[in-house]
UniProtKB/TrEMBL annotation:
<dbReference type="InterPro" id="IPR027417">
    <property type="entry name" value="P-loop_NTPase"/>
</dbReference>
<dbReference type="InterPro" id="IPR003593">
    <property type="entry name" value="AAA+_ATPase"/>
</dbReference>
<dbReference type="GO" id="GO:0016887">
    <property type="term" value="F:ATP hydrolysis activity"/>
</dbReference>
<protein>
    <submittedName>
        <fullName>Antibiotic transport system ATP-binding protein</fullName>
    </submittedName>
</protein>
<keyword id="KW-0067">ATP-binding</keyword>
<keyword id="KW-0813">Transport</keyword>
<feature type="domain" description="ABC transporter">
    <location>
        <begin position="4"/>
        <end position="235"/>
    </location>
</feature>
<dbReference type="Pfam" id="PF00005">
    <property type="entry name" value="ABC_tran"/>
</dbReference>
<dbReference type="InterPro" id="IPR051782">
    <property type="entry name" value="ABC_Transporter_VariousFunc"/>
</dbReference>
<keyword id="KW-0547">Nucleotide-binding</keyword>
<dbReference type="InterPro" id="IPR003439">
    <property type="entry name" value="ABC_transporter-like_ATP-bd"/>
</dbReference>
<dbReference type="GO" id="GO:0005524">
    <property type="term" value="F:ATP binding"/>
</dbReference>
Length: 286
């Protein structure tokens, strides 16, 4: 059974008395235990709305199951004992220090990992009695590790957690995060625009567009199915197998490598063939 199963999820917001806007439409999704999912999409695609539905923060139409139990007002509280999300605690309590916030926060979870807390605390470089708002972005990310990982969750949900931090901090955060979830078989869903930085971290990419899932695939399978052609010049006509062209680049994505290559040779266009990156896949499908 999947860890998380979403069936026919629809979410609309009222625009005025007569009209509403559909942000997510009839979306179904299954998330397996112990895997890392990259939730990708352009601004307004519905990523944050989807995650907020899972966390029980907003009402929706459809059904969401977590560990084979349907989530509703009665079951969400128990489910959230094994789900962590961030960085909401940092934003909600800016005047509290980590030492002030932790006692009440850890009471929400029954599997708190004191050894991991000790390990993270040994490597932190800030005063745990300082309020969150006075910490640097890098120090906030260290605090975020505590709030996200120490509850020993079965599911971690991160929505753009590292956008304001420098590359060194992000690299450290990802490395620690992946090491721990691999050890404990934790499931991670991370929504981010820093696509190139997580290319080697996730098992499956989920790409959303206009409130729907347009792609859900592992990187290995994507690179088997599609190839990137970098061209000497762009052809005047569409090439068979072509998925789409990259704006500003002399390159295209193909799902029929042999036929595309043959067509380009007949047109006299020199080209190189390589595996696409997740950014290439994102640009075409998102």
């Amino acid at each position: 059974m999947p860890l998380l199963k979403i069936e026919n999820l629809t979410k609309s917001y009222p625009v005025n008395f007569f009209k509403s806007k559909t942000v997510i439409e009839n979306l179904s999704l299954e998330i397996e235990k112990g895997k890392v999912y990259a939730l990708l999409g352009r601004n307004g695609a519905g990523k944050t709305t989807l995650l907020n539905c899972v966390l029980g923060l907003i009402n929706y139409k459809g059904r969401i199951f977590y560990k084979d139990t349907e989530l509703n007002r009665k079951t969400i509280k128990q489910a959230l004992k094994t789900i962590t999300s961030a960085p909401s605690p940092i934003e909600m309590f800016p005047n509290l220090s980590l030492n002030q916030y932790l006692p009440s926060y850890r009471m929400l979870y029954s599997n708190w990992d004191n050894e991991l807390l000790k390990k993270i605390k040994e490597f932190t470089e800030f005063d745990w009695d300082k309020p969150f708002k006075s910490l640097s972005n890098g120090q906030k990310m260290q605090a975020l590790q505590v709030l996200t990982l120490c509850p020993s969750p079965d599911l971690i949900i991160l929505d753009e957690p590292l956008g304001v931090t420098d590359p060194v901090v992000r690299k450290y955060f990802y490395r620690t995060l992946i090491d721990i979830i691999a050890e404990k078989e934790t499931t991670l869903i991370i929504a981010t625009h820093l696509i190139n930085e997580i290319e080697n971290l996730f098992d499956t990419a989920i790409i959303m567009k206009n409130g729907k899932i347009v792609m859900q695939e592992s990187m290995d399978k994507l690179q088997t199915r599609y190839k990137k052609f970098t061209l000497e010049k762009m052809p005047d006509t569409k090439i068979e197998g072509e998925i789409g062209r990259f704006l500003g680049e002399k390159a295209l994505l193909s799902e029929n490598t042999e036929k595309t290559s043959e067509d380009l040779k007949q047109l006299g266009i020199k080209h190189l063939i390589a595996n696409p990156t997740i950014e290439d896949i994102f640009e075409i499908f998102a």
